Amino acid sequence: MQLNKKQRAELKMKYDGHCAYCGCELGDKWHADHIEAVDRVLAWCPKRGVKSTGEMHKPHLDTIENLNPSCVPCNINKHSMSLESWRKSIEHYRDVQLLRDSTHARHLHRFGLIEIKPDPVVFFFEKRGASDQHLTR
């Protein structure tokens, strides 16, 4: 759905100007994330590869109630995953990929400059105690 300026401003303030996921303060550039993905139709374009047509497989989910304010990195990383799939993906980065795939992270970890915590992934809106059904675990 195309948000007008008022709707966009209201959505940004849903969590007092913070990303619903990581909690960072949103600046001028932020995304309206579909909590439950609308799943865009993809098509093959010669010379450009696979691109989105903009058409949705689940247009019934394109509602203001299904939107969260998101920083650009969180929205891009979440992509079209469900919240639970994304949570598991983040845990996988922490538990498996970070120290396995990053020599820099391993070195910083050896020097005690970064700490890998076994804590569960809790999104900002969950810490805030959101009451919307879409937002509960």
Descriptive labels:
globular; two-stranded antiparallel sheet; 16% strand; 34% helix; two-stranded antiparallel ribbon; alpha+beta; 5 helices
Q: Categorize the overall geometry.
A: globular
Q: Give the N-terminus to C-terminus distance in angstroms.
A: 25 Å
What number of domains?
A: 2
Note poorly predicted spans.
Answer: 130-137
Number of strands: 4
State the helicity in percent bands.
Answer: 25-40%
Q: Compute the CA-based radius of gyration.
A: 17 Å
SSE-based structural type? alpha+beta
The overall average pLDDT, rounded, is 91
Strand order of the largest sheet: 1-4
Strand/helix succession: HEEEEHHHH
Q: Roughly what fraction of the amino acids lie in strands?
A: 15-25%
Biggest sheet: strands, sense, closure?
2 strands, antiparallel
Number of helices, counting only DSSP H or I runs of 4 residues or more? 5
Organism: Acinetobacter celticus
Keywords: Endonuclease, Hydrolase, Nuclease
GO molecular function, one term: endonuclease activity
Protein name: HNH endonuclease
Brief write-up:
The chain has 5 helices and 4 strands, in the order αββββαααα. It has 137 residues and is of the alpha+beta class. It has 2 domains: 1-79, no CATH class; 81-116, no CATH class.
Describe the structure.
Helices cover 34% and strands 16% of the residues. By secondary structure, the protein is an alpha+beta fold. It has two domains: 1-79, no CATH class; 81-116, no CATH class. It has a two-stranded antiparallel sheet. Strands 2-3 form a two-stranded antiparallel sheet. A hairpin with a 3-residue loop joins strand 2 and strand 3. It is globular and about 50 Å long. The chain starts with a helix and ends in a 10-residue tail after the last helix. Residues 130-137 have low confidence and may be disordered.
